[in-house]
Design goal:
There is one protein chain. By secondary structure, this protein is of the alpha+beta class. It is built from eight helices and five strands. It has helices at residues 25-34, 38-57, 65-78, 84-93, 98-129, 131-134, 147-158, 164-170, and strands spanning 3-5, 16-18, 21-23, 138-144, 180-186. It has a three-stranded antiparallel beta sheet with strand order 1-2-3. The chain has a two-stranded antiparallel ribbon with strand order 4-5. Helix 3 crosses helix 5.
């Protein structure tokens, strides 16, 4: 089965072909609604639209040519597209041209800068206000000499059927005659 995106012209004409059969937006969206994929799709579209508007409107997120070059080189190395023929073949598979690819890279750089601009100002304040909570860790341990009992404990915990402290209560693990021991400590 082969799929081919068709360049958009904002009409009711086909926007995608599958095995040579053109599909209209009505067919594409109707199928998504039928299989319960419409809501997540619309959420994604709205999210991308809002993000694109924000990235486009912000003038405090410039992308320098050196940042672009570095990001492009990093992407090509990571994807093993160092060879220009491999890169061109990849662009074709992704139905991209070099300009669109560079726009994608620029947007990813701007997105990183936007995240930093949003998060950084309050990060130190939040960390300092919640330092005590963030430094604490709750350690729990169930110890038993019976492998079958240990496997049973693990299965129930992984299935989220029960918590470790509930298991300790069920098996009276604080009792000195118990087949297992339960430990809990805040650090």
């Amino acid at each position: 089965m082969t799929t081919t995106p068709v360049p958009t012209n904002h009409s009711q004409d086909a926007h995608l072909t599958i095995d040579g059969r053109p599909l209209s937006w009505q067919e594409i969206l109707g199928g998504m609604q039928l299989f319960g994929k419409m809501q997540p799709f619309l959420q994604e579209v709205v999210g991308q639209y809002v993000l694109l508007q924000e990235l486009t409107a912000r003038e405090d997120l410039p992308v320098s040519s050196s940042e672009m070059m570095e990001a492009i080189m990093e992407f090509r190395l990571k994807q093993q597209l160092n060879d220009s023929e491999k890169f061109d073949a990849w662009l074709k598979r992704e139905t991209l041209n070099n300009d669109t690819f560079q726009q994608r890279i620029a947007m990813s750089i701007k997105l990183k800068k936007l995240k930093a601009a949003i998060a950084e100002p309050g990060l130190d304040v939040y960390f300092n206000e919640h330092k005590h909570d963030l430094e604490r860790l709750k350690l729990q341990c169930l110890v038993t000499s019976e492998e079958s009992l240990a496997r049973q404990f693990m299965s129930r915990i992984q299935a989220e059927d029960v918590t470790m402290s509930q298991l300790a209560n069920e098996h009276a693990l604080s009792d000195s005659s118990a087949k297992a021991k339960y430990f809990q400590q805040m650090v």
